[in-house]
Amino acid sequence: MTHDATTHGGRAALWPQPVLDLLARDPDRPVFEDGDRVVGAQEMGDAVARVVAGLRAADVGPGVGVALDLGVAPEAFAATLASFAVGARVCGLPPGLAPEQRAALLARADIALVVDDDRLAHLMTSPPAASVVAAGRPDDVARVTWTSGTSGRPKGCVQTYASMSAAWAPHPEQWPPAVAALAPRLQRYLVVGPLSSQVVLEYGVLALAAGGVLVAARPPGFPDAIVRHRATASVITVGRLHQLVRAQREHPADLSTLRALLVSGSPLAPSRLAEALDVLGPVVFHGYGQTETGMIAMATPGEMLENPAVLASVGRPPAAVGVQVRDGELLVRTPSQASAYWDDPQETAEVFVGGWVRTRDLGGLDADGYLHLRGRARDVVIVDAQLVHAGAVERVLAQDPAVAEAYVAARPDDDTGEAVHAWVVPAHGSVPDVDALRERVARALGAVAVPRSVTLVDGVPLTPAGKPDKSALLAPDLAPLGSHLASPPA
């Protein structure tokens, strides 16, 4: 099923009007499966109207802050659409926040209403609104997508309603070639994360626009959920992709329905990407994007199998995406990019430059237009698609009186894509308590930032310029005082 872009008064309709119109256009089509329950478009539209009425009764309208703390369910999808429909400033809560971080984020984000399962059940008792038309104002903030906070302070990427309305997901005639190749494979899109997630929601809308249905993952794990729900597509992190490939080699499951796995978030070596295509078949779409920009590039299975050189890239940016290279760093411009960080003018000025977004990644385009990443201009570890800032972990570790110096670097990891590893120089006459160090990091930055290993060293190698050489810390011949392995973060 396809449809033309909805317009009102000769201009593209504001978000989420295209999705509301899609639900109204074909009321009998299924749009969401949750176990044995199948929710049709008309029922979903009615749920949206009920939540809209409940939000309005709670004085939620344009510019009012709403936080969504919901899982995967038809009602959660309805609440997400309804919050945008009333013109609220919508944010989801990132996973893994410590309680004090969560409270601080809600206060900082100026949230008037937190919609959790109990609140949503109450909102759903409202008689449905007589009509639901997107009430957002183009220049108002539509969504604040919060990072995990491993820099020590979560960053909120701000998108306006105008920006979200420029996204191509609901409009088949705007789909770039890679997205057009992907869309027909989303007939049964397995939802494995909260619908307030930027990536999960984007591909969910794409699936609906392609005539597909959203399927709640129960159980959530791979490959069981794919088999049980006859899923054709899902989003997967690099770590979980490695685990799925290993599981298929050891105990193959029937993945004959699977047609697309959307993988991004962490570095993926060409050899591991080739292995995934070999074991899983031509189903892996390798993409690159950021919270600040949305999708920047994507490589299709056909491209990678036809030309193995493409395996070393992250795909070709579509025509609507601008790419510049300045001093080795990639700057991009996308139709629906963020425009600022919430309540952070200094970081905003550093990253959002003259309509371009600094990615803080190093790279360039080859002669065929494929984008290659060559490193990072910032010191981060990408754990399960979440950014962990090395400096923040180092500062927390160094606060322990038994620690003289602390250094953090990334290593590839089959479970999480990359993992945090720490090297600690003990203070004179002290022996750091490694369990206490990990607990300190967990309290300050969340479980995702906890080091997978902590290695005690009597000094850190230096570069010729006299600066700490983190690459040398990763060398196998580094002599440690002791190494202490951590369990994977929960």
From TrEMBL:
Coiled-coil residues: none
Short name of one Pfam family: AMP-binding
InterPro entries: AMP-bd_C, AMP-bd_C_sf, AMP-binding_CS, AMP-dep_synth/lig_dom, ANL_N_sf, ATP-dep_AMP-bd_enzyme
Domain AMP-dependent synthetase/ligase per the UniProt entry, residue ranges: 24-342
AMP-binding enzyme C-terminal domain: residues covered: 393-467
PANTHER family: LONG-CHAIN-FATTY-ACID--COA LIGASE, NONRIBOSOMAL PEPTIDE SYNTHASE PES1 (EUROFUNG)-RELATED
Protein name: AMP-binding protein
Species this chain originates from: Cellulomonas dongxiuzhuiae
Lineage: Bacteria, Bacillati, Actinomycetota, Actinomycetes, Micrococcales
